[in-house]
Design a protein that fits this description.
With about 230 residues, this protein is of the alpha/beta class. Helices cover about 35% and strands about 20% of the residues. The chain has ten helices and nine strands. Helix 7 links the parallel strand 2 and strand 3. The longest helix is centred in the N-terminal third of the chain and has 17 residues. The chain binds 2'-O-acetyl adenosine-5-diphosphoribose (OAD).
Amino acid sequence: MKIVILTGAGISAESGLGTFRDTDGLWTKYDLNEVATPEGFARNPALVHEFYNARRANCLKAVPNRAHMALARLEQYYFGEVLVVTQNVDDLHERAGSRVVWHMHGQLSRALCAACNHRWDSAPELTPDDRCPACGARAVRPDIVWFGEMPYLMDEIISALMAADLFVSIGTSGNVYPAAGFVDIANQTGTPSLELNLELSDTAPAFTQTRQGPASVLVPAWVDEVLAR
Ligand code: OAD
């Protein structure tokens, strides 16, 4: 038995990290075209670094919540396989103890050279003057997948979804593709699906079952159910 779990900003909301599209979300305060696109980075790298430096600092201060902990517990005690595919760029799943976590939108803790594609552990703050440790180019960016770029590990994620026995989506608004289309892949292969979200997402009608509430309550309760079976 294999469970594939997709997580989004909602699972980290109760750890104090802002979501994107809620009423006080990050995309109500920042223009995503300026801070989350390759074109925005080319126009104003200092602004983009400032945005992600602030997010990296918030992430360092945050601690995993009961939902992250519950998923780590599921991976540890479930008799089958558990894969967490996250859209989140924080490391709260790993800090909670999950070992198999695929970051489809990249990670704040990593830096990427736009000139040679070298990747390394990011300093707490990046600036436009930084040089790539491999090729020396002044082309250092956060290792984050921006709008218009291809998310990481897509072939592997699609294969995992096709082999899954259950697909669970937690804390994501169903706004951003390809992640928003994962439930369709589950439906095409006849795999049951469950949405755990504060409110019904845009893709809620496609799920076999939906539950509404905070992740810190819903996720531990669902994990208890699965482990008790
Ligand atoms: P969104 O901000 O779009 O959606 C967050 C979802 O979490 C909403 O549906 C909320 O109702 C729900 N939510 C909020 N608090 C919650 C809680 N305590 N418990 C459970 N659910 C809660 O964030 P994402 O769907 O993750 O990409 O956004 C997807 C992508 O869009 C992000 O990875 C990011 C963003 O632009 C890039 O930056 C490329």
